[in-house]
Each structure stands twice: as C-alpha cells, then as structure tokens.
Amino acid sequence: MVERVLSIRNSRTNALAAALVFVAGAYLIWKISESPDQAVQFAFNGISVGAIYALLAMGFTIVYSTVWFFDLYYGAAAAIGAYGVFYLRSKEAAGALYGGVNSPYVNAMFAAVVAGVVAWALHAAYFNRLRARFGARTVIAAEAAVAGGAGAYAGLVMTYTEHMHVMLSPAVGIAAAGTVIWAARAGFGRAGAAVAALPALALGGYCAMLIAGAPGSKLYLSWAVSCLLAGAVGLAFYRGLYIYVRRRARSPQIMLVASLGILLALTAATAIVFDTAARPLPDAFGSEPWTILGGKIKGFNIFTLGVAIVGFIGMLYLLKKTSFGRAVRAIGDDEEVSKVVGINTTVVIAIVFFIGAFYAAAAGVLSGHDTAIQPRMGLLLLLKGWIASVVGGIGNLYGALVGGFALGMIEQFGIWDLAGEWKDVISFLALILFLSFWPKGLLPRK
Fold first, then answer.
1. Which of 121, 134, 200, 354 has fewest C-beta within 10 Å?
2. 285 with 299: CB under 8 angstroms?
3. What is the mean predicted confidence (pLDDT) over 14-43?
4. Whole-number mean pLDDT of the chain?
C-alpha cells in the first residue's frame, strides 16, 4: 500500500515537472520567434555570466565532494580576488577617483599568511626527509628562512605596487622554467628534465625580462597575485582553524558556523578597508563589444568562457589522471580508510582548499571586471556557485560546468519580460524548482 502511494505521488510529481518544462519551452520558443536578435543577446549574456558561475561551481564542487561541508569562506575568497585587483591597482588606475588604498597593516597580514603557508608546506613536504640527514634544528631554521623570505617578498609586492612588474619578473621566470622542467620530467623522466634544463632556464630568463619591461602587465599580474593570496588564506584557514574544529566537533554544522563567522568577518573587514561604495576595476583587454548574429559580446567575455573551459579541463586532468586526484577521490569516499592506507589527508585537503579558493577568486576577478565590485559580492557569488552546483548535480565536476551555464541561461532568458533586478529572484526560483523536482541535478553524482 505504501509503495503504491509513493508510486502515485512520484507519477504526479513527474507529470507536474514535465508540464512545467513544456510550458517554459513553449514560452521560450514563442519569444525567440518574436525577437531572434534579442534571443541571441540573451544567449551571449548567459554564456558570459554562466562561465563565471561554472568556475564558482567547480571550485565549490572539489571542496564539497572532499570534506562534505559547505565552506562559506568560499564567498569571501571571490571577494578577495576582486578587491585584491582593486587594492593592487588603486594607486594608479583608480587613485584619481577614490584615492590609493594601500595599508601597511593589510600588507603585513597577507605577508604573514604567505610566510605561514610556505612554512607549513615546506615542513609537510621535506622535514621528515631531511631531518635525519641535517638535523631537525637545521631543517627548521632553513624552513623559517625560506618562509620569512617568501612573506617579505609578498609584502614588498603589495607595498610597491607601481613596480609590481619588475618585482614579480623573477617569480614569473622561475615559474616558466619550472613548468618546462616539470613537463619534461613527467614525459621523459629525469633524463628529459636534465636535457630541458638549459632551454628552460633560457626561457625563464626571457620571460622575466619580458615582464620587467612591460608596465602594462601589472593589471594581469594582479590577477594572479590576488588569486594566489585568496588560495593561501583558504589554506591557512583550513590548517589553522578548520582542522582543529573538525577533530573536536566532528559535525558539519559546527564547520558551517565557523566558516559563516569567517565570511561575515571578512565581509566586514572589506567594508572597513574599502568603504561600502561600489568600485569599478580597471578596464581589461577586450572591453569593446563585437556584434555577432545581431547580438553584442565583448572579447573579455569570450576570454572568460575560455578560462572556464581551461579551468574545467585542468581540474578534470588533476582529479582523473594524477595521484593527487586519486587521493582526493579516496578521501571523499572515506577519509578514515584513506588515512589507514597511508594518504596524508591533512596535506591533500589543505591543497583542495587552496584550489577551491583559487577558483573562487578567479571567478571574483572576472565578475569584477564585468560589473562593479562591492563588499557583499562574495555572499551573492557564493550563493550562485551553490545554485549552479545544485542545478548541475552537486559533487559532479561535469555537472558543475553544465550547471553554471544552465543557471546563466535561466537567469538571462528568465528576465525577458522583466527588469534586470529580477535575475536573483529567477535564480532562487530555479533552486527551489530543482530541489523540488530534480534534487540530484541535471548530471547526478555517481
């Protein structure tokens, strides 16, 4: 009897869901037939904002599917990305309008975070290997010296932002050379890395000189710095707070409350440092719109789409083709068993938090260049990333990509006969409908 009642209820629910889809589809076809050019414009708008939502959903997905709780710092990371660009460029690009914003206290705080993260990373990676050979005190002293140097370097970059391209040129050169050597070693082993070492160093030197002589690169360097800082803060919160809360409370609700406190505190701090007024970011490349098929889209929006696709491919490769990805999936399935088989869950989860915050910050940067930034933007982007994850299928990376673009399209086409302010209402209505009729999303996690 109970099974029959449930079957009837499910049939009615499915019928209602099918009716809603049919009505929405018929309405959409009618509107498109009336104004094809407007439909193209809404499609372009949906792709543009959907790429940002997809980035948010991807970062949210890797964190949630690993530790299975909603890290609300994720929204603050998006705001750090956007406001980081404004902070690093305000002396020059926005100084005439708002006055340069550069606080020694903020610089010192982020320098300390960078130093702490580097110290922990070095200790976790090399301490056990090197202490038997050089002694614990020597290794700790070396780690402290390197971490202190990294923190001081970060502080100087944030302080003397007008010379950012010169100060970051060595880091860019080292990163370029290291990438080539790493790729050679991954493909051909140590012999390949040795052969590639000299060309890699030459390439690194050339990249460093190129950046040092290009003042126009400061805006784009600030993107990388902001995303890295947001990732470092996310890692620091996990290693310095979340890990202890998880061990003692062992409750997702406690973690949710802790991350909510962080989100509110960072939002308030942002309002104190930058005021509550909306701020524009400097114009990036591709600001002029192109007319295609009767609709307009900016080159920067196409770049945003490319970033989302590259971000998806990169995360997919990381999770499916690397030992780190296998460790992440194992922790998501059962963290205690992962510890038993030798996975250093603390390190792996910390890296996951770094990656998730990096993706959120990248989405915040791209969103900030498309619209003005304001302190509460992190909360809204957090909610949009979560809704996109639910629409696509929470915990599924493919669903994160699909859900982001689906939400963007739903928002844009949903306001066809409404004012633009209704977009957020449309998003939350979509969330309610999916939770009611398709709770597993478009691509459920297997």
1. 134
2. yes
3. 78
4. 85
- DSSP state for residue 421 in the 8-state scheme: G
226 to each of 79, 223, 308, 378, how far by Cα in Å? 10, 5, 18, 14
For the chain, helix (H) and strand (E) counts, in that order, are 17, 2
* Amino acid occupying residue 35: S
Based on its alpha-carbon atoms, the radius of gyration of the chain, rounded to whole angstroms, reads 24
Nearest-CA neighbor of 235 among 355, 86, 374? 355
* One-letter amino acid of 183: A
Burial label for 187, CB within 10 Å (0-12, 13-18, 19+), is exposed
Query: How crowded is residue 441: how many other Cβ atoms within 10 Å of its Cβ?
Result: 23
**DSSP 8-state assignment for residue 94:** S
Q: What is the largest CA-CA distance in the chain?
A: 78
Torsion of CA 72, 63, 86, 47, to 10 degrees: -100
At 354 the pLDDT is: 93
Burial 376-400 (b: 16+ CB within 10 A, else e): ebbbbbbbbbbbbbbbbbbbbbebb
Per-residue pLDDT of 31-46, as tens digits, reads 777 778 888 888 888 9
